[in-house]
Amino acid sequence: MLIIADLAHFDGLEPITLLAPGTADGIAVGQALRRRPSRRELEASGGKYLAEDVRWHLPAEEVAEAPLPGARIVDADHESWTVLAVDRETLGSRWACWSRNLAIAGGLDETVTLQQAAWTKDPHGAPLAVWSTYRTGVRARVQPVEADVRQERDQHLTHRRYRVFVAEPLALDDNFRLLRDGRLYHIVGYDRPQRIDELLVLHCLEYMDEG
Question: Which domains does the chain have, with CATH numbers?
Answer without folding.
Answer: 7-100 (2.40.10.270), 110-209 (2.40.10.370)
